[in-house]
Amino acid sequence: MSTALDIKQSKLSNGMVVITDHMPSVETVSLGVWVNAGTRHEAAEINGISHLLEHMAFKGTERRTAQAIAEEIEAVGGLLNAYTSRDHTAYYAKILKEDTGLGIDILADILQHSSLDPDELAREQAVVVQEISQAIDTPDDIIFDHFQATAFPQQAVGRPVLGTAELVRSFSRKTVAGYMRDHYGSGTMILAAAGNLNHDSIVAEAERHFSGLAPARAGSEEPARYEGGDYREERDLEQVHVVLGFDGVAYEDPDYYAMSVLSGLLGGGMSSRLFQEVRERRGLAYSVYSFSQSLSDGGLFSIYAGTGADESAEVVPVICEEVRKVMKSVTAEEVRRSRAQIKAGILMGLESTNARCEQLARQLMVHGRIQSIEEVVARIEAVDEAAVVKVANRLFTTPPTFAAIGPLENVADYASIRESLLA
After folding, report:
1. Which of 39, 94, 151, 189 has its CB 3.0 to 4.6 Å from that of 86, i.e. a possible disulfide?
2. At what angle do helices 173-183 and 118-136 cross, to 10 degrees?
């Protein structure tokens, strides 16, 4: 399969970037607007407002009701959705190629002319509070919020994407509108599209619908400062949910791909060390895995396990033992297998308009340019055993972050975990 991509990039008269990836063999187009506004751009007193605003964008504009937005996109068989992360918010659609103009029209409308009706706001605040309650009631979900807050205490990047029920209820229309005005601007938004499209037509439509968008007013984001620590919450559950993590690396860090390969061989699949040792050989957990996440200025390397109250006494020490082992040596076969998994994920993504659209926006936001597939694959292939051991020693000698929810009587204390990692 050829990895050559037909990518074009333009800038509108107001400075907004438009980037497209032409895929002539498909009949659809995925397009979206990525906004450089997420949890880490929020002050403590408005934590959760990015996510609430994402909800409110679909609740009516000056010329469309919430129902009309849903009916127009579904009348052509399209899909419209959004999500909020710690560093950005995305609004996206997937439609047939002949309806691309409608998709751009709707996205431009909800992002510039949202009515933010007070009655709709009150209803959506209630919906988000229910979403927060659901997360709290889902221990293998909420554990990651506590983990993040412990790794980055008293910082925007450590606060939950959803916010708290108390804060969400407190937001007025004026506050939401002010946040949108400050953060949603021509310099903070990227329009990306992938599929059977014409770049010049996309640019023309974008110019027509987004030309009135002014620059954002907001300043820079708060830097991430990893600290680490310990969080425990005793709950009457059938399982103990634990996350052990360490200071990670940023997207542009030279060790980024080595960290990805490390995560794959340590806990990225059924052949990984953690899966084989914790689940297959010892039967201590149904779910155990590792993952890495990066930001523009830092990151996290994390290991999750869900286990029984009795088994929890053994699970954490076993995980620590596997961490110590990977700091000493890895095999060429393990590295090759992990590299293959990462490459396959990237290449399989080339078959998806959704994946290619999101990749365009993410790379522009993170790197300020598009990396070729050949460049990315070459960097993955350059990772060898020495690079993996080196990054393991870099990450796993930082102060650990530990979070646990459930029956905790058998879970090792933080001091014991730190001592075990240094053994």
Report:
1. 39
2. 80
pLDDT in tens, 32-67: 999 999 999 999 999 999 999 999 999 999 999 999
Helix, strand or coil, per DSSP, at residue 246:
strand
- pLDDT > 70 in the chain, percent: 99
Ordered strands of the 401-406 beta sheet: 229-234, 401-406, 239-247, 299-308, 285-294
Which of 42, 45, 54, 358 is catalytic? The answer is 54
* Residues 253-273 pLDDT 10s: 999 999 999 999 999 999 999
Interacting residues of 134 by C-beta distance below 8 A, sequence separation 6+: none
What does residue 420 show for φ and ψ, rounded to 5 degrees? -65, -40
| Residue indicated by tokens 């309650």 | 133
- Record the pTM: 0.94
Q: Is 277 a catalytic residue?
A: no
Measured at the CA of 303, the angle between CA 298 and CA 309, to 5 degrees, comes to: 145
Strands 17-22 and 189-195 come out as parallel
Residue 78 — φ and ψ, nearest 5°? -90, 170
Distance CA(188)–CA(161), nearest Å, equals 19
pLDDT at 68 over 70: yes
Half-sphere exposure of 154 (CA within 13 A, CB side): 2
CA dihedral sign, ordered 209, 212, 215, 216: negative
